[in-house]
Amino acid sequence: MPCGDCRAATSPPDSGSAPPGYAIQAGCYFAALQRLDASLLTLFLYTFPAMVAVAAVLLGRDRFDRRRAAALVLASTGLVLVVATVGTGRLDPLGVALSLSAALVYSTYILVSDPVAGRVRPDVLSALVCTGAAMSLTVGTTLVGDLHPGALTASGWGWLTCLAAVSTVAAILLFFSGLRRVGPTTAAILSTIEPVVTVGLAVLIFGEAFGVLQVLGGALVISAVFALHARLPAWRGAPVAQPVANDA
Length: 248
Hints:
Belongs to the EamA transporter family. This protein has helices spanning 22-33, 38-45, 48-58, 66-84, 93-117, 122-143, 154-182, 184-190, 193-206, 212-228. It is mostly helical.
């Protein structure tokens, strides 16, 4: 997979360049959150790195080498240890379907974004995606009667602004910046560090317990980052005997 520096922008951005699907993914996620525990939802959602890896290889977008394979195994195993020990509620079929739909849509979103991120600046692409998602979700929540801006307090608007600016706009900008440099598979695998950071912040801010298995899981996820950059020795077969020159 060529790096982002090798895929420099060669064409001006246009409004049709923004990859679709972010609003759909968010809608599926929050709908699933009403039916599943957050920990269980996270486990289903973070099947997307494997989906991206397989699809990227099949589409010829990426190479699935030993480093990426090792990193995917480490990250997935660590994620299970981090999240599964938090506790899981009942397995609601519709909730599972929605969470897997969110993972599938997000995988498609990453793969569609990959070539676009190579020719459109990350800040421009982020602005297009966020604007489109905001418009889609505003229309959608209005149609179903869930949009009640007057019910928010000043504190609520403050937190909403933080969520929009930091957790959405900044996060999408950084993701697109990384995507154009490392490709879809590596970007998806590195995204698994998000639940580890979430659990860590919950411990620091809310004083939640952090068990041994969660510590081990977090270490595995972090080790996946190093696995992606490890220099593995090439496989070498037995040396081939060279013919001996006959001086006679």
